[in-house]
Amino acid sequence: MEQKTGLDRAKAQLRTDDAVAQKTGLDRAKAPLRNDAASPRLVAAEWPLEQLPGLSAEDGEGLGKCGFTTTTQLRQQAATKKNRQLLAERLRVRVESVQKWVALAELSSVPSVGCEYCGLLLHAGVASVGQLAQMPLHRLHQQILRVQVTMMQRRDLCPGVEQVGRWIAEAKLLATRDR
Q: pTM for the complete prediction?
């Protein structure tokens, strides 16, 4: 009998979730504002900027004045180094802050990661969907566990291996679609 890895189980769960979502018309990502029709299999999640962790109310207000209301808008408009620098100057913040917000926005585009876990991934050293897609499952889970125990002193709050496998599987689908 062949043993399934966490990544295999996550891929199987994705297929099941997709089938249920199609039959019921429900969005399995739970909260994205809109779907991107480019990929019928998996769509990048879009979130209101105020849900992005690490973004102060003042910085969120500044981004709003610049016309940004969603994570997708931030990712698209601040995609280049030059645009991130211009945005930082316009908001009068450090470019590193803008880079952090863009990284969080990109990670939150993975539906099962969302705004709930994008900060945890960033603290674990993952800064992009492409990087997440390349991470070995058990290594990433160990990094996340280390961060969770160090920051929260709570091992029980760490996402399980299957959930982390789902993040990687979805990141692979999104990274493949974006090529």
A: 0.77
